[in-house]
């Protein structure tokens, strides 16, 4: 006996739907088709809405990232200009100090007679053998024990003493400048302000061997430019300090020594520490050798370090910043 063939329409006719009148079937069919169309349209609208939302979110993220980048670039440019102005001004001051000393040395014929101040009678030799001047004078004058006070040196010191008529004004007008000094080829040192230098440095202290002096000499600085030292912590508790120096010559273009000044970088560290980037970002400053110049308190927390263990001037590497990523370095 042959089995009856299954048909969807035969099955549909056997259901309650099949027992409906034709009019009812048509109405119900139209309703189902309409419902199906609405369902498909709803799914399509939902899909397109999600797609548009994703595109909008992506575009918004791109816009926010671009705005953040533009803000960061603008902030960096503004602060870089500010810092550059600071260092340019310091370089200019150093050059002026060097030229001032040169100008005074070039007037040695009229200033060396000892009428203003006489090294021969004003300098005393300490028990250690080094030379010292009175602590009430404007500048400290020091020479190591192995220096002989010759007539030429006396005339030069008598002339250089006149620098106290102009150089102290730089200290008064620039709170960032800690000290101004001149180291001569005869190992003489004139230092502003007067800090009783002879009782601070050893009796064999040789100014011509100091890094700031050596780097500025014509042999190492043929273009006679202003030379910058690496930042360091000042022994006199002035914080992070940098030394600028420039060679000094006489009227015959003969090298006479190096003029220098110590500058504390407190203003720089304060400026950088107060830079805000976005909601939670901040700036920090290092030199070309990765020495830390400025870092706000939040930076210390983020890197897991303290101001006591990592001072300004410290080289930042994997040893000092164990929590920093490779990408950071």
Describe the structure.
The protein is α+β, with helices and mostly antiparallel strands. Among the domains are: 92-267, PAS domain (Beta-Lactamase); 284-329, no CATH class. Helix content is 41%, strand content 16%. It contains nine helices and 13 strands. The chain has helices spanning 8-14, 22-105, 108-111, 119-122, 151-160, 168-173, 211-216, 266-273, 297-303, and strands spanning 124-125, 131-132, 140-142, 177-184, 189-192, 227-228, 232-233, 240-249, 255-264, 276-277, 281-282, 285-286, 292-294. Strands 3, 4, 5, 6, 7, 8 and 9 form a seven-stranded antiparallel sheet that branches. A two-stranded antiparallel sheet has the order 1-2. A two-stranded antiparallel sheet has the order 10-11. A hairpin with a 4-residue loop joins β4 (177-184) and β5. The longest helix has 84 residues, at 22-105. It is rod-shaped, with a radius of gyration of 40 Å. The termini are far apart.
Describe, in short, the structure shown:
The protein has 329 residues and is of the alpha+beta class. It is built from 9 helices and 13 strands.
Structural class: alpha+beta
Q: How many β-strands, per DSSP?
A: 13
Rg on CA atoms, Å: 40 Å
Reported for the largest beta sheet, the result is: 7 strands, antiparallel
| H/E element sequence | HHHHEEEHHEEHEEEEHEEEEH
pLDDT < 50 runs, ≥5 residues = none
Q: What gross morphology would you assign?
A: rod-shaped
Number of helical elements? 9
Q: Which percent range fits the helix content? A: 40-55%
CATH architecture annotation of the domain at 92-267: 2-Layer Sandwich
Taking the alpha carbons of the first and last residues, their distance comes to: 87 Å
Percent strand equals 15-25%
Average pLDDT figure: 87
CATH class of the domain at 92-267: Alpha Beta
